[in-house]
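[recover] target loaded
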């Protein structure tokens, strides 16, 4: 579905790169033949993302990242979306919507978020010499 591509996804921050790889590992482990697998994997992604986003947000706070509000707002929006689709997956229509969200939105969102917001964060941290690669 969306393999971890070093040239595209690697930001050279060990902790953040590890979280991104874990996100894609969960995302890609869905059984495409089983609708319930999509639900379970989205639940797993939601739980992973809570930890993942908190880790990034702790770094933002610790090093006074100037664009933390926008970045945190994006995190909250995605967590709310995931939660919404999980809570509404109790009907055939809800399950279809969750599957569409999973297959058509999450992967593209991940790439865009990583290439814009997360790359900006890691560039800021690197410039501030706050971590070692």
């Amino acid at each position: 579905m969306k393999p971890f591509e070093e040239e595209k996804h690697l930001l050279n921050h060990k902790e953040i790169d590890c979280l991104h790889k874990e996100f894609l590992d969960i995302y890609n482990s869905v059984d495409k033949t089983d609708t319930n697998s999509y639900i379970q994997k989205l639940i797993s992604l939601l739980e992973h993302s809570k930890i993942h986003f908190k880790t990034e947000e702790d770094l933002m706070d610790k090093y006074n990242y100037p664009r933390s509000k926008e970045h945190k707002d994006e995190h909250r929006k995605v967590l709310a979306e995931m939660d919404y689709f999980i809570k509404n997956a109790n009907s055939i229509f809800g399950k279809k919507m969750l599957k569409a969200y999973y297959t058509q939105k999450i992967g593209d969102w991940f790439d865009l978020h990583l290439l814009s917001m997360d790359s900006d964060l890691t560039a800021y941290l690197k410039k501030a010499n706050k971590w070692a690669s």
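[recover] notes: Residues 92-127 form the longest helix (36 residues).
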